[in-house]
User: Which sequence fits this backbone?
């Protein structure tokens, strides 16, 4: 995974999230594009790369929000890391799996955001509104996930993972399974 | 048995990310966006502003199409409802006439053209973006520091209806927290009363709520709610906020809870006016005097406002358009 490509990916992700998706709302909510991208990277390149990309994408998004800086970064990074670790135990993934991963990650990341936001004293994350927002945003994430996974898979995958310095996780497990 | 290096590395990355995030959250929660973190935000906004404007021009029609696609069922229901309302209104011409007369009367009452706006240096701006996140209610406008817009200035629509206040400004844009945001607060009263209450936004709804409106205020459904004349308020008095939709009287003389429907739909705003209004002092009146050797910028009222002067050694005429606003509040909420 080249650093320049990762940087380009992060810039495009933040720009789309900040400038485009506010115009394309689903029931008044925007998706967590950075989270889906980070999860897709974690899926292809392992938990460390996912956490790293999630942290940077979240941080880039946080700059434009009024919530505390680092809140999205933490939620995205932890979710991507968890997905990367869990993915290690999966040998093959059917096509329908990506929307499920996107949706579940959206719920996990959203709930993390809400939980840490409550601890940090953010006013807007109280009550049923927070749960409905997380659910709708997660559904949007699920819709976007197949496209994002496709782009990440085509755009970032290389024989060697330069960020991690190792082979990508999925390939490693496939090779190990073959013996 | 030694742990594999990969596991240690993973834990190190995880710990690094978590600790960095928690440190940033703590720093930002304590100091707000006034320090270096705020500067980073303003620089990022300045860079992204042209993209936001371009995207607004391109994605606006796409967004309308998308909304129509997503909300088609809702639009059909709304259409049916509106047809019913039209039929109903046709049979109630007399009520409409009375409403028009009342509207005219109220507009004259709170008309700011003859009092506030000419002196307050209104800056008209286009709304180019809305809150990028899901847990806040903000709008982004296309005028910022280059137009003298500073943090804390009141933002209105249609010259007299409160939208919110500026919470961040940069070159080429500013971010406005609308009244519906949970962190927004505004001192209000009903037209028929002088008793003041604090209206706050609620997450997930555009409704404003006054949680402890005094008992003697006697507010009722349909009352017009306007800004109150409170010292150091972010908003000038007598601007329209909305109408009372319901009043919940609390037991034991704790006052009542007012539910207020804002006078405007914050999601449908296209243009807004930023009032160069200094809380506690009134409208900013800026006079700029330019001579061949000295440039003086004075802000009035001047009790605590700033004034600058600079001296030039050359004899050439200096064209200055600089304006200096007075002190701006640091509080995030209105009041």
Assistant:
């Amino acid at each position: 995974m080249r650093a320049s490509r990762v940087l380009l990916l992060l810039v495009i992700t933040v720009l789309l999230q900040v400038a485009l998706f506010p115009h394309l709302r689903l029931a008044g909510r925007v998706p967590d594009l950075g989270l889906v991208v980070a999860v897709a990277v974690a899926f292809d390149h392992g938990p460390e790369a996912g956490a790293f990309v999630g942290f940077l994408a979240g941080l880039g998004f946080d700059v434009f929000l009024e919530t505390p800086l680092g809140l999205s970064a933490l939620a995205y990074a932890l979710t991507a890391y968890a997905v990367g670790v869990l993915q290690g135990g999966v040998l093959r993934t059917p096509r329908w799996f990506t929307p499920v991963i996107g949706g579940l990650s959206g719920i996990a990341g959203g709930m993390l955001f809400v939980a840490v936001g409550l601890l940090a004293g953010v006013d807007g994350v109280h009550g049923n509104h927070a749960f409905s927002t997380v659910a709708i945003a997660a559904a949007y994430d699920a819709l976007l996930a197949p496209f994002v996974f496709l782009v990440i898979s085509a755009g970032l995958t290389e024989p060697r993972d330069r960020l991690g310095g190792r082979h990508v996780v999925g390939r490693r497990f496939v090779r190990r399974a073959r013996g | 048995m030694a742990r594999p290096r990969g596991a240690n590395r993973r834990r190190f990355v995880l710990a690094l990310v978590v600790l960095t995030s928690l440190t940033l959250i703590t720093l930002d929660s304590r100091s707000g966006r006034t320090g270096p973190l705020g500067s980073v935000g303003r620089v990022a906004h300045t860079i992204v502003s042209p993209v936001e404007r371009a995207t607004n021009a391109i994605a606006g029609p796409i967004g309308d199409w998308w909304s129509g696609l997503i909300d088609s069922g809702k639009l059909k229901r709304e259409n049916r409802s509106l047809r019913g309302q039209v039929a109903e209104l046709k049979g109630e011409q007399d009520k409409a006439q009375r409403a028009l007369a009342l509207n005219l009367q109220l507009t004259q009452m709170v008309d700011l053209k003859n009092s506030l706006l000419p002196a307050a240096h209104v800056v008209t701006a286009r709304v180019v973006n809305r809150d990028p996140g899901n847990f806040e209610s903000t709008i982004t406008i296309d005028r910022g520091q280059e137009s003298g817009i500073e943090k804390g200035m009141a933002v209105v629509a249609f010259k007299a209806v409160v939208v919110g206040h500026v919470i961040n400004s940069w070159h080429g844009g500013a971010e406005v927290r609308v009244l519906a945001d949970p962190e927004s607060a505004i001192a209000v009263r009903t037209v028929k009363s002088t008793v003041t209450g604090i209206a706050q936004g609620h997450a997930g709804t555009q409704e404003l709520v006054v949680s402890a409106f005094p008992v003697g205020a006697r507010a009722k459904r349909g009352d017009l709610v306007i800004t109150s004349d409170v010292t150091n308020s972010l908003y000038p008095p007598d601007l329209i906020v909305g109408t009372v939709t319901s009043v919940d009287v609390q037991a034991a003389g704790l006052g009542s809870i007012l539910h207020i429907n804002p006078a405007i739909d914050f999601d449908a705003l296209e243009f807004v006016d930023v009032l160069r209004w200094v809380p506690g002092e009134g409208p900013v009146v800026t006079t700029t005097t330019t001579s061949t050797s000295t440039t003086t910028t004075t802000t009035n009222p001047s009790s605590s406002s700033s004034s600058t002067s600079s001296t030039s050694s050359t004899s050439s005429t200096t064209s200055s358009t600089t304006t200096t606003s007075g002190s701006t509040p640091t509080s995030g909420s209105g009041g």
Summary: Residues 287-334 of chain B have pLDDT under 50 and may be disordered.
